[in-house]
Amino acid sequence: MSAQRFTGRTALITGAGSGIGRALALAFAAEGANVVVAGRTRSALEETVALVEEAGGVAVARVADVTDAAGVDALVRGAVERFGSLDVAVNNAGIIRAGRSLADTDPADWQAVMDTNLTGLFLALRAEIRQMRAQPGGGTIVNVASNLGAHAQKPGVTAYSASKAAVASLTRGAALEHIGDGVRINSVSPGVTRTAMSLLPGESEEGRAARMKEQSPLGRAVTTAEVARAVLYLASDDAAPVVGADLVIDGGTTL
Ligand code: NAI
Fold this sequence. Notes:
The structure is a single chain. The chain is built from eight helices and seven strands, in the order βαβαβαβαβααβααβ. The chain is α/β, with parallel strands linked by helices. It has a seven-stranded parallel sheet with strand order 3-2-1-4-5-6-7, sandwiched between helices. Helix 1 (19-30) packs parallel to helix 2 (42-54) and helix 3 (69-83) packs parallel to helix 4. The longest helix is centred in the middle third of the chain and has 28 residues, at 107-134. The model has no long low-confidence stretch (mean pLDDT 97). The site of 1,4-dihydronicotinamide adenine dinucleotide has 27 residues, from helix 1 and helix 4.
C-alpha cells in the first residue's frame, strides 16, 4: 500500500479538469485527501471527480474562474464548508498563447495570459493564505510555474514566460511573508509535460516524443504523474523546511 500523507486533509486544485491538474487530483486523493476539483468547465471537472471516485477517492467539482476574485473567495469558502478546512492548495490553472514574437503580440493575448497565469494565481493564493493563516493547522501551497520563465526562454512564448517567471517571484515573496503565519508556499517549474498544452501546432504525441528525444537530456517529456509526485512532496510534511523553492522538473532541459 502506498503512503497516505494527506489523510483527512483538504486539497484544492485549480485547473483540475484536464492535464496536470487532473493528475494532481488523482494523486492527492490516492493519498487520502478530500479533493476540491476547480476549474471553468463543469463536464471536465466531473470527469475528474468520476476518475477519483473510481479509484476509491473523495472529490467534489466546483466551477470557478481564477480571474474572478469573488468567485475564488467563494471557492475557498465552499471548500471549508464542505470539508472543514483548507490544508493544501495547488494553483495550477494556466493558459498559453504561442507563436508570435513580442513585437507582434496582440495586447489582448498578453492580457489574457497575465490575467490567468499571474493575476488569477494571485487572487487564488490570496484567498488560500487568508483561510490557512486563520485556521489552527496552517497550510501549504504549491504554485505551478514553468521552466520557461525563470529558467529558460524560447521564441514565441514571451508573454507566457514572463507570467511564469513572475509566478516564481510571487511564490518567493509570499513564502517569505507568510511562513510565519503557518503557510508554506513553493512552486514547481515543469518542462514539456505530456498534455495538450505542450503540443506544437499540428504536432502529434509521437512528434512531441521525437522532439523531446532531441531536446531533453533525459530524452523524453515529463509525465503528468511525475509532476504530481513532485507537487505532493512539496505539499507534504516531508518538505517542512522547504520554503519559497522552485523545483524544476524538466529532465535537465534547461541546464
Ligand atoms: P491544460 O490546458 O490541460 O490545463 C490547464 C487547466 O487550467 C485547464 O483545465 C484549463 O481549463 C484551466 N484554466 C485555464 N484558465 C482558467 C481560469 N481562468 N480559471 C480556472 N481554470 C482555468 O494544461 P496543463 O499542461 O495541464 O497545464 C497545467 C499547468 O501547468 C499550467 O499552469 C501550465 O502553464 C503549466 N505547465 C504546463 C507544461 C506542459 O508542458 N504541459 C509545462 C510547464 C508548465
